Amino acid sequence: MIRKSWIIIALGLFFGFLVVGIAKAQQATPSDDQVNAIARQLYCPVCENTPLDVCPTTACAQWRELIRQKLADGWTGQQIKDYFVEQYGARVLGSPPLKGLNWLAYIVPLLVILVGIFILFSTFRSWRKPASQAPPSAPGSVPPVGPPGVQDEYIKQLEDQVRKR
Length: 165
Hints:
By secondary structure, this protein is mainly α. It is 63% helix and 0% strand. It has three domains: 1-29; 31-95, Cytochrome C biogenesis protein (Helicase, Ruva Protein, domain 3), CATH 1.10.8.640; 98-126. Helix 2 (32-39) crosses helix 3 (58-72).
């Protein structure tokens, strides 16, 4: 009876380690999604403006395999990006790092949008302002035309001529 229980325990441990070993071996190979998540953030150093995850060249296929290998070795996404920057320069990054004048790439569009909103707001506000109100005129009279100084002289001349008659 005791011997039978030892055999059952030994078989249970053997199959348990076998299952754990298979699961661990499956986790060691990174999936295409994990590789593409990093490759999407990098641009092909050979092709212009082409993300590494969609570039059809053999060089990019080799670089994706390199990413897969480094992920299998336990590298993080940031370590892999740093490796590619070290090899090919900052131009391989999908978004520029916040160093030097690169921060302008983030600030300038925001400033342009804010200035545009301000211009639109002031334009719409000026459209809603009522025009300067002229004094109400008598019904049937013609509104004065021209600058105020000229209007006054013209009106005086008209009044003088009307009085003479």
